[in-house]
Amino acid sequence: MFESRFKFVDIASVAGAYRGIRQEIRPIANGRIRRKLSGRAYSSARAQFRQLQTTVYFEDMRPPALAGLWPGDIVTIHCAVELPQPQIVGSEPIRPVVPGTLVHLDADGNLVDEADAIHFNFCPVLTGIVEPWAIMDDEWAASAQTDITIIEVDGNA
Predict the structure, then answer these.
(1) Which of 11, 46, 97, 98 is deepest in the core (most CB within 10 A)?
(2) 20 pairs with which residues across the strands?
(3) Alpha carbons 9 and 60: distance in angstroms, whole number
(4) At a CB cut-off of 8 Å and minimum separation 6, what does 62 contact?
(5) Per-residue H/E/C for 67-100
(6) Same domain, 95 and 53
(7) Cα 6 to Cα 26, 76, 110, 146, 153, distances in angstroms
(8) Closest Cα to residue 79, out of 116, 30, 144, 24?
(9) Do 13 and 43 reside in the same domain of the chain?
(10) pLDDT (tens digit, 9 = 90+) per residue, 82-97?
(11) Domain that holds residue 22
C-alpha cells in the first residue's frame, strides 16, 4: 500500500496521515530575461532570491487539520514530490533531503550507485510562510478538497 511521504513537521502530523495528495513545486519568479542593445539575452535574477513555492492539494473524506494555521505562519514540511537534479561531481542536493528519499539514477532511470549516476532524485524539506488556504466540502460525495500554498523563506539554507 502506498503511503505518502508528505508531512507537516511543526504541527503534529505524521507521514502517511494524508490521502489523495497532489503537490507541485515551482521556482518563485526572480528577475527577468532582458536583452542588451546587441541583442544578447541575459537574466537579471539574483542567486539569493532562488526560492521555491509549493502548493499541496488534498482530497479525502476529511480535510487536514489546518484551522489555527494562519497566513504568515512559518512551517516546515517534508514534501511528497521528488525533485530531479543533475549529478555533477561533488554536487549536493539544492535543499535538505527528506530521510530515505535520495536515489541515484542512470540515463535509463535505473537505480545505480552514486558513482554511476547522471542525476538523482530527492524529496526536499522546505521551511516556508503559509499563504491563505481553502477547504471545499462535497457533502453528497462525502469528500473534502483542500489546498495550501507555502512560500520558502530562505532558499539558500
Answers:
(1) 98
(2) none
(3) 20
(4) 144
(5) CCCCCCCEEEEECCCCEEEECCCCCCCCCCECCC
(6) no
(7) 17, 11, 24, 14, 19
(8) 24
(9) yes
(10) 999 987 766 889 999 9
(11) 1-81+124-157
Enumerate long-range contacts of 18-21, CB under 8 Å, 24 or more apart: 18/58, 18/60, 18/64, 19/58, 19/59, 19/60, 20/58, 20/59, 20/60, 21/56, 21/57, 21/58, 21/80
Q: Are residues 95 and 41 in the same domain?
A: no
Lowest mean pLDDT among 35-44, 51-60, 66-75, 86-95: 86-95
pLDDT score at 73 = 93
Count of structural domains within the chain: 2
Say whether both 39 and 2 belong to one domain. yes
What CATH number does residue 138 fall under?
Answer: 2.40.30.200
Give the torsion sign (CA, 56, 137, 3, 71): positive
- pTM over the 0.85 mark: no
